[in-house]
Predict the structure.
Amino acid sequence: MSGLSMSSFSFEPLPTAEVEAAEERFTVFTDEVRRLMDLTIRSTVDEDRLSQAEALIRQAADLLAESAPPGPAGVHYNDQGRSWNWGNAVVGVRNAIAPPVRLTWDDDDLVHAEVELGAAYEGPPGSVHGGVSALLLDHLMGETASSRHTKLTVTGTLTLRYVQPLPLGRVRMEARIAETSGRKVTVTAWIGNDNGPAVEATGLFIVPRWAENPEVVTDIGSLD
Amino acid sequence: MSGLSMSSFSFEPLPTAEVEAAEERFTVFTDEVRRLMDLTIRSTVDEDRLSQAEALIRQAADLLAESAPPGPAGVHYNDQGRSWNWGNAVVGVRNAIAPPVRLTWDDDDLVHAEVELGAAYEGPPGSVHGGVSALLLDHLMGETASSRHTKLTVTGTLTLRYVQPLPLGRVRMEARIAETSGRKVTVTAWIGNDNGPAVEATGLFIVPRWAENPEVVTDIGSLD
């Protein structure tokens, strides 16, 4: 992909300990927003309570808006090799859209994650939206392609096979590097539960030329 | 896909006018939640304001929780042929994850949508998450396969080609039926902006055997 380069990422002189303290704080805060998001879907309260809730939400947002520079969160790194992408739609700790997914590297080639998907991820009745499975797999596979963030990759192609519906609730996903050839990394993956895979995927990930020898070594990983 | 059938959808004796009034009300309410979600990512306020906002969000959620049966929103239909899926992750008017996308049928075979994607949809710095493009395309293509909801389809396979980064902001997507053969519908699509397509997709959608002659004719459409 063109239009991205190392300068898309911004250096921040924030010590890793402070990055981690901020992540802890926002994990708690954003979980409250996730709870609100879930209840916005499920609540059957009357118009009185709905209006009260609406006013409280507006007050909360107005407080946050007192200082909120325009533009997205971006991807940042410090001089200790720590990176953070708090706005990311899959793993961002400040993004209520993100469940968030937390990845576990079993080894350099194998990554898995487990996550609870509630009412906000619905597509077919009671099931995870097929596009949500695609969203989560794309991210997991990109991260996997980065080999523990030792290289920076972008998605080239992604093929998904829908095998069976995936009920909302606890889901598991797993991705592994199937092949590496020059700047190309092929990754296979699935998302499912105790009944086996619901969606299987194969993806081709590419190390952009500008990222082959990045001047700044960070743990940015996948550009998902 | 197995595990879904016409009984997955629930009949509700709610007149279309009331469905539409509820949708209008929740469009406004959920937009407040979307604003909060966006500010949760972008705000730089101090801990004092953050705590105040957190307390207000909790109060709002507690109000909504006074009556909130467990389980997802589901997909419903009435006896006037109107269906609604307010919890859907792409188009649900009560789901803050959904931008929401609003589809326009240009004809039976061609569907487009335009939508503003802000900070909550970020992947690479300043760009739409590749998985979000997959999420939106999957939904759009499934709806397209349904030929204006005259048939009910599920995703079989989906192939995505990532051509260039897609900056956050206004995006456009378009899908068309390329071929129909028995229970199989092939759909091609793209998502992009004035610079052209960023992601191109081909999908195979299938009418499940149990949905070939559904007893209840509704406008449910795609099972995304």
